[in-house]
Amino acid sequence: MKHGRIYLNAFVMNCVGHQSPGLWTHPADESYRYTDMEYWSELARTLERGRFDAVFLADVLGVYDVYQGSRDASVRDAAQVPVNDPLLVVPVMAQVTKHLGFGVTSSVSYEPPYLFARRMSTLDHLTKGRVGWNIVTSYLDSAARNLGLQRQVSHDARYDIADEYLDVCYKLWEGSWEDDAVVRDRNQKIYADPAKVHEIGHQGKYFSVPGIHLCEPSPQRTPVLYQAGASARGRAFAAKHAECVFIIAPTIPMARTYVRALRQEAEKIGRDPAEIRVFSMFTPIVGRTQAEAEEKYLDYARHASYHGALALYGGWSGLDLSQYGPDEPLQYVRNEAIYSAVEVFTKMDPDRQWTVAEIAKFIGIGGRGPVFVGTPESIADTMQAWVDEADVDGFNIAYAVTPGTFVDFVNLVVPELQARGLVWRDYAADTLRGNLYGGRRHLPDHHPARQYRRQGQGESADVGAVAGTSS
Q1: What are phi and psi of 277, to 5 degrees?
Q2: Which of 63, 107, 151, 216 could form a disulfide with 138 if both were Cys (CB 3.0 to 4.6 A apart)?
Q3: CATH 3.20.20.30 assigned to 2-284+380-462
Q4: Where along the chain do its domains lie?
Q5: Minimal CA–CA distance to 406: which of 47, 14, 24?
């Protein structure tokens, strides 16, 4: 099997209702504790016990207000609102773990790269090199309006901005401070050598950043780069920049189609396609017997919210499905939201037409991703099939109820995967990139970010990667 193991992320959000709208009403769900530090520290310990690579923290900066032309359904059903800042829970989880990584979502559309680069370097320092960045361009008009724009910037233009945004961040993280700039010489009273700290002198179409990075080099310098764009423009962006790509596909054939296109795009630009770790989302519902798992699924389904599901889908797709009858099939419409949210239910499976009611039911548990219902053995079989047939490398595991979904997976499914040699029994490194890439702490020299490195800052700087020591 490629890479020797299945990679695991927990897919969460700093909110009440993430991918399963209405499940906050289930008596076993504790998502209401999302404002408590104890909730996050307990979850982190559970995931590290299950040898997860990372917690993948989603985020949005607006409300889902497309459905029925109102944000009321989202607010009523807690469909990703209220939602708190994802970055602020990372130190809480890092404090109680040693190896678990943290992939945080942050948009290039609304925060200047100069400020964001400092925030990520700070987190990389505090976590000793366990941070990743899920690069998003945002898709909600409500976010754009609340952040001073009349409407969302067009889809492809957002990626043009993102390309330059990353150039600025790369210059700050990789090129501003040389590896040996910090000397900490008490006798000569020199903390850092000014000759080895450089202005980046960036003057572009969207950003002007003349000065130095405010932070000394962090353990990874550039955080692990995640991306989730599924459109043609998004795939091109991911093929160029991403180390890890997050996909959402209801079936193996749909996932295989996307992964093949992504890897071909990477190969086209001279990148090794196997270098990209692809994570597919799914929600596991585990029982010690198949009957127990199916009963658990039916129990959860009774709590799913029809209107909450369509509120989420309205935000993802830009389509107000209250304008359709429940039994009316969805037709493809292109707009400036998430292209794949429409394509997956219209164009990607030409043999099936999804009705509004079917979409609402599907999204009710697990969002747009599949739900695996079964015993530890059958879920492990399904995961292995996705790896073998869809060419994914791992999974973003969403929850129906939290923390119960993760506790069940760690207690029941992980031991089965470990017995098959598909999930490791211990971590290999102390940094996130080290665990994903065999001990390597920094980006490889062929990554576009590394063009900004100063002379002498090559792969040799990765000495000490397994220990996760600072540069």
Answers
A1: -90, 120
A2: 107
A3: yes
A4: 2-284+380-462
A5: 47
